[in-house]
Structure formats: C-alpha cells, structure tokens
Design brief:
Elements: H1 2-29, E1 34-41, E2 46-48, E3 54-56, E4 65-70, H2 75-91, E5 97-103, H3 107-116, E6 123-126, E7 142-146, E8 151-157, H4 165-176
Parallel strand pairs: 4-5, 5-6
Antiparallel strand pairs: 1-8, 2-3, 4-7, 7-8
C-alpha cells in the first residue's frame, strides 16, 4: 500500500510539474515567433477584402507581410485582434503590410466585426477555407511573417500579443533588411 501511495504522490507531483511547464510554455508563447530553419515560399493568394478590394500575394512583393488567419467564431482569434490592429498601426510606418484572412465567415459578418472592434487592417475573405488549407497551419489563429520575396520566415500558431516589443522588434528587423529584386 505504501508503494502505491508513494507512486501516486510522485505521479501527482509529476503531473503538477508538467502542468506548470505547460502553463509557462503557453504564457511565454504569447510573445514569441517561431523562426523557420529556412524560408519557405508562401502559397500565392488572390482574395477579396470585406471592403471589396482585391489582394494578391504578388502585390506585396518587396514588402514584409504579416498574414493572419482568423474567424469571428474563434475566441483566441477575437482576443488577439485588438493587438493585431495595434501592431498594424505601429508597423505601417516601417513599410510592413498586414492582412487578416477570415476563415469561413461571410462579408457582412466580417464587416460588422470590423465596425464593432474598430479595425482598420485589411480583412480578406476565405469563406470556404480553400486558401487557408494551402498554408502550413494546424488551427486558428495562425500567423505567418513573410520576407520581401514572399517567403515565410516566422510563424505563430495560437494567440499572440502582436503589439509586444519582442514581436514588433523581429518584424522591424526583417523590414530593415534591404531588398534586392
């Protein structure tokens, strides 16, 4: 019986320790970006925005581009959207572009969401999720930072504090690299 109790005690301590590690990893993940070992070409897209403008990946060539996938029905997506908007406002003067590609909502729903949350960043529509399926993501929200040649350099799976200085600094450094077409 003592062996069982000792085992159960160690297991409970082990589980508590694991929970602490997972919690701390999740807490730290909110301000980090994953660096890809080598840049990967981003899948081309041509999407209509909620304001009916057309956006093509090729149109961003020569600029650093942040591509965020989100949905109005995704709580972490909704939670990170104000920070994404602040990042957009902060990064625009550095020549960084940002688009948020909505997965599965119609234009009216996205427009209403934008008004409610006072969003000015470009909100593109992917109502059937066809474009999202071409990107290397496991769920929403998912974000990719592309270099001036349209290659994915950084990625983030899950909610982030997009206006955190650690994230902004990485993106600004990427934008400071001269582009040679």
């Amino acid at each position: 019986m003592q062996h069982i109790l000792r085992f159960m005690g160690l297991t409970a301590m082990g589980l508590a320790g694991m929970a602490l590690l997972v919690w701390s990893a999740l807490a730290a993940a909110g301000t980090s970006l994953k660096t890809l070992p080598a840049p990967v070409p981003a899948p081309a897209f041509e999407l209509t925005a909620a304001d009916t403008s057309i956006h093509k990946l090729a149109g961003y060539r020569g600029k650093v581009l942040v591509v965020n996938f989100w949905a109005t029905w995704c709580p972490p997506c909704v939670k990170e959207m104000p920070a994404l908007e602040r990042a957009w406002q902060t990064l625009q003067p550095a020549g960084v572009e940002l688009v948020a590609i909505n997965f599965g909502d119609d234009a009216g729903t996205v427009q209403a969401f934008a008004r409610q949350h006072e969003l000015t960043l470009p909100l593109l529509l992917d109502p059937q999720g066809q474009e999202a399926q071409r990107w290397p993501m496991r769920g929403l929200p998912a974000t990719f930072v592309l270099d001036r040649d349209g290659r994915i350099v950084y990625s983030a799976q899950g909610e982030r504090e997009w206006d955190h200085e650690d994230i902004l600094s990485k993106i600004r450094k990427l934008a400071a690299v001269p582009w040679k077409p």
